[in-house]
Design a protein that fits this description.
The complex is a heterodimer.
Chain A: E1 12-15, E2 21-24, E3 31-36, H1 42-59, E4 63-69, H2 81-89, E5 96-99, H3 104-109, E6 113-114, E7 116-120, E8 126-130, H4 144-154, E9 169-170
Parallel strand pairs in A: 3-4, 4-5
Antiparallel strand pairs in A: 1-2, 3-7, 6-9, 7-8
Chain B: E1 3-8, H1 15-29, E2 34-39, H2 43-48, E3 56-59, E4 62-63, E5 79-81, E6 85-87, H3 92-110
Parallel strand pairs in B: 1-2
Antiparallel strand pairs in B: 1-3, 3-4, 5-6
Helix pairs in contact in B: 1-3
The chains are: A alpha/beta, B alpha+beta.
Chain lengths: 183, 111
């Protein structure tokens, strides 16, 4: 059962491309951002720099930001752990880049596409789920959906728009028993 | 008459935009294309069809864009955009240019 807006998320632990093993507690920060992304999806690539800028801009406000790749690396080698490590070593990511190799965690949360944005409040409650902004092609959108959600949480307000429609490449499941996000 | 084939996969949300791109190119180039559609349904079919992502555009079987370094699979296709950027659809001007060139080449070959 995927987590829904209003659900409380439990802490989770995954290996990171940095070489560390990272435990994320969504209730440990003023807000926590978890983004499913990958190395080869054009939507993830188009939104990538906007996402990294959000991580930079909100770090000083106490926001935790994590990115996760769960794609099947056997069929899609561009999304292998080694490729993740190369990107991290090249300085392409502002945050820890976690690997959900067996995809169990991603399925439990109901991740659908890359990018797929989850934002939690200080109690670990899912408060925003959806796209970074309304248009992957328009950089001036500046990840406004995410920023609005984070601004609200940092200010202690309810998130004004808790859910938007995701848009991206479907997560590449090893066993594709997940619904197509576009049907 | 050369045929433009649009090859897509339903797990990628760009099909409507790809069709709009084709319509816009038809208007700009002042022609009506013979368009066929093909849907790729599974990973194995993608391998057989050398399908490097959705959407793929081919004229008489030839891809309108470079496929070097791209792997076959059920995925959204990466297109290089002006300014070193990437996107799920080709740049319109490049699409129009490549389409026009491919139609001319195919027309000469068929004449």
């Amino acid at each position: 059962m995927a987590i829904q807006i209003g659900d409380k998320a439990q802490p989770f632990t995954l290996p990171a491309a940095s070489g560390k093993t990272i435990t994320v507690d969504p209730a440990a920060s003023v807000a926590t951002v978890v983004v499913w992304t990958c190395n080869h999806c054009p939507y993830a690539m188009a939104w990538h720099e906007r996402l990294q800028q959000v991580a930079r801009d909100y770090r000083s406000k106490g926001v935790e930001f994590i990115q996760i790749n769960a794609n099947d690396a056997e069929k899609y080698p561009d999304d292998s752990f080694e490729s993740m490590q190369q990107r991290v070593q090249a300085g392409e990511l502002e945050t820890e880049y976690l690997w959900d190799e067996d995809q169990a965690f991603s399925k439990s949360w109901g991740a659908k596409v890359t990018p797929d944005v989850f934002v939690f409040d200080s109690n670990g409650v899912l408060s925003y789920r959806g796209a970074p902004d309304s248009n992957y092609e328009d950089e001036s959108q500046n990840a406004s959906y995410m920023r609005d959600a984070l601004d609200d949480l940092v200010a202690g307000r309810p998130v004004r728009t808790p859910e938007t429609k995701v848009r991206g490449c479907s997560v590449k499941w090893i066993i594709n028993d997940q619904p197509n996000p576009y049907i | 008459m050369p045929t433009l084939e649009l090859i897509t996969w339903e797990g990628c949300p760009s099909t409507d935009e790809a069709l709009a791109l084709i319509s816009r190119a038809e208007l700009d180039l002042g022609l009506k294309l013979s368009l066929t559609r093909r849907e790729i349904n599974d990973y194995e079919e993608a391998q057989v069809a050398s399908f490097v992502g959705s959407p793929t555009f081919r004229v008489d079987g030839r891809d309108l864009f470079d496929t070097a370094g791209q792997r076959s699979g059920l995925t959204c296709r990466i297109y290089h955009k002006p300014g070193g950027k990437f996107g799920p659809l080709p740049d319109f001007e490049e699409f129009k240019h490549n389409l026009s060139a491919s139609l001319n080449t195919a027309g000469e070959a068929n004449s």
